[in-house]
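User: My collaborator sent over this chain with a note saying "see what the structure looks like." That's all I know about it. Can you take a look?
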Amino acid sequence: MNKLILPVIVLISVLFIVAGMTGDNKEAMENSAIMEVTSAQELNDLIEKGPVIVEVGAEWCSYCVEQKVVLAEISLEYEEEASVAYINADKAGALASSFTVSSIPDSFVIVENGENGYVYMGDGGQTTTDRISVRFLGLTPKNKFTNALDNAIEYRN
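Assistant: Without extra context I'll predict from the sequence alone. Here is the result:
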């Protein structure tokens, strides 16, 4: 009997945490300004306005869904200064492939569309045309994105 108490407590705790997060996540997603893009032109239009955080993911990917919630929060916080774009790898495979995405979620910050292609921003403030060196693979903490985004906004100003 005593052996069951700890697992039951852990299970109940997890359920309370998940239940509490669901309400906040749902609200953030409903109010978010995430733009689902399916073409390079749509993405370029966003970049003209300012820096863009891009997530490449899929609906069946649980980490992608979790990452999208984080990006929904960011989209609300940076609504006037930057854009958040989502590329569904299943619906816009050609666009996802153009970024050489091999696993999801794969996220990155585009600062501008330069002469030699996109210019990306790393979370340490470095700019590069090599997306692979500054991409965020897997579930990424919010502060990594906001660091890169703050640097990208400063770069654009």
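A starting point for your reply to your collaborator: Helices lie at 2-31, 40-49, 62-77, 93-98, 131-134, 142-156.
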